[in-house]
Amino acid sequence: MKANRKTIIYAICLIAAIILPLVFGGNYFISLYGQTLINIIIVFGLNFITGLTRNMNLGTAGIMALGAYASGILYVKFGVSPWLGLAAAIVVGYLIGKGLGYPSLRVSGVYLSLTTIAFGEIVRLILNNTMNLTGGAQGLSNLSSYSIFGFEISRGLPFYYFLLVIMLIMLWISTRIVRSKWGRAFKAISDNPDAAESLGIDIAKVKVLAFTLASIYASFGGALYAHLMGYINPATFNFDMSIDFVVMLMVGGIGVVSGNIIGAIVVTMLPELLRFLGNYYQLVFYLIAFIGAIKLPQGWPAGLASLWKWIVKKTGLKSRKEG
């Protein structure tokens, strides 16, 4: 019964995702929906390193930027297909993951956080000052969309549905990884690294793997973002963006793949829904996120589920239904 209920919920969510841009359309909102899907993909990756192994990564924006610029530079400077740019972004993510993963073996906690923050800022400064290659502060523009068999996936609804398919594929991959021996190893070194090592788990190898997966997802998402927007510049990939990804993880519930989707949707869409508050919308949003982090430390979905169980218990709703 529980499995059937989950299947029904997933089916309803998928139908809603398909219908939403048809009901609430417009170029701005469809672009926002596309950004939400990309954020979901990136949070899937962050979940491996920060959610499961509990190693903080505050340099996600820098990794995303390198993926975006890898694809953007190949297209603008060399006329390379965005598909090959996407493959290049995956390679870049792999290399970054290896490069960031090994320092994580020697530092942890606040020192690892500072290391990843420094990485993100260094990337942004390099992109901002290499005018001949990256366009400097002006960035790269006129980035084309993807095409399949000669048919361009134009921005708007076609690109949104293209991203939806990509997100579903990445959801399946992420779920498989979490349920695999890799996922169990990630959780093991988070709960008790000494016990995990005594059972034969190579902690160093597992940590580097988690960083590598997180970096590949972020770099992959960056390449998608570049061709969704058609324009990128260094200012977009700032420290605030990295913080937002961590907030997405916290809102959805750390370590929960389905929660990654909810967290990314809430953190991406809620500020837009609060824009009627004018200059105070960001203050209100972060206040809501702060209160949620304190009152619902397991994530909003788990907190709301606990609240529902409490209501059912107090009101006797379940017993009345059974009767």
Concise structural overview:
The protein is mainly α. Helices cover 76% and strands 2% of the residues. A two-stranded antiparallel sheet has the order 1-4. The chain has a two-stranded antiparallel ribbon with strand order 2-3.
Detailed description of the structure:
The longest helix is centred in the C-terminal third of the chain and has 27 residues, at 203-229. The model is unreliable at 319-323 (pLDDT under 50). The protein contains 15 helices and four strands. The chain has helices spanning 2-23, 27-52, 60-78, 82-101, 110-129, 131-134, 157-179, 181-191, 193-198, 203-229, 239-252, 257-273, 281-295, 300-315, 317-322; strands spanning 140-141, 147-148, 151-152, 231-232. Strand 2 (147-148) and strand 3 form a beta hairpin. Helix 2 (27-52) runs parallel beside helix 7 (157-179) and helix 3 (60-78) crosses helix 10. It has a two-stranded antiparallel ribbon. The protein has 323 residues and is mostly helical.
List keywords for this structure.
323 residues, mainly alpha, two-stranded antiparallel ribbon, two-stranded antiparallel sheet, disordered C terminus
